[in-house]
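Batch manifest, entry 17 of 40.
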Amino acid sequence: MRVFSPAKVNLHLEVLEKRADGYHEIQSLMAPIGLFDEMEILPGGRGIRLFTEGETIPGGPENLAWRAAQLFCRETAVPDNLEIRIKKRIPVAAGLGGGSGNAAAVLLTLNDLSPKRLDPDSLLVLGSRLGADVPFFLFQRPALARGKGEILTAVRMPEGLFFLLLVPPFRISTPWAYESFDRLTGGKRKEATLLKNRYVTWGELLPVLKNDLEIPALSRYPEIGRKKEELLRLGARGALMSGSGPVTFGLFPSEEEAETAGKKLDLPEGWKFMLARGI
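Output type: structure tokens
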């Protein structure tokens, strides 16, 4: 079965207290975007085999999609005989959730194919065991995420959001981002912003654009901040780093405006831009 696994952006990300399990409590507005990895999930053969094309990613148990297949098969007691092929288009370790989206795509596909289907809540529990962003990709729509990311509420977003994504040649480790945030802020936490489940106009959405993980990212890579400023000068309604970074996006009301801005970017060597629409 061929499936397309989307990326996501964080339009708001607050890092709250650290939990006993090592994760942090968060509050985040998340939206899927039309940038996809192409996947094929084929039952048969012996064991779980995973092959990738594009950016270099692990091909065995270190890969989240592989672990998703193993977990689903163990939980449902079905044979773990399948092949997974991933054609990577989503930048890796970039704050776009590509690996988590791949894992969710495996869970959803295997659940569709399985004679022992899980209900949506049970599938979300499995996803939460794999990673903080996996439940969002199982939810399959814009959401307000709380807890470590597994408590999800559907959110209405403005129609016609277009994203101009700036992709630098370096990666940021998610554990490093959170550990550095704790160190730089001294572990101090304030009350979470009161967010709602409806942001249908630019006037409602733009004031809540925020990402706490920009604090460590910009301390190491100040060029991220400079690129945010450039996006705003080129007409973006708002600009923000997504997730733990380093991809930074500008928000535009039309594809034409986003594409025009992309052509005017002054990108250092190794940087590239990508366009995507909110879905």
